[in-house]
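Before we proceed, please read the two lines closing this message. Let me know whether the structure tokens fit the sequence:

…
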Amino acid sequence: MEKTKQKQAYATKMMSFFDAADESGDGFLSRDEFEAVMEDPKVQAWFSVMDVDVYESHEFFELLADNEGLVSAHDFVNGIPRLKGQARSQDMVAVRLLNKHILQNLEEIHS
């Protein structure tokens, strides 16, 4: 029960952060919106406390963005926990993302 409350509190905080970062109000974070908010030292410290390394915001964005180059609220809230921990975790997410793009390209070639 406690873990569920923690997850809900986390999701609420992440949605509040997302809404504040989404300056255009379109429900997506563009690269510019994302990088602008990630330059804030307070934001960097906040993510650091959550054990998420965001110092390479370009790569961080790529791990979360869809094929259109945008990050939805859902992808943001659900993607951040996958990036927690040591660089190894982030590296594995990057590998999974790269594999996803390769599979999509292969499907396009075969269709």
Notes: The first strand starts at residue 28 and ends at 29.
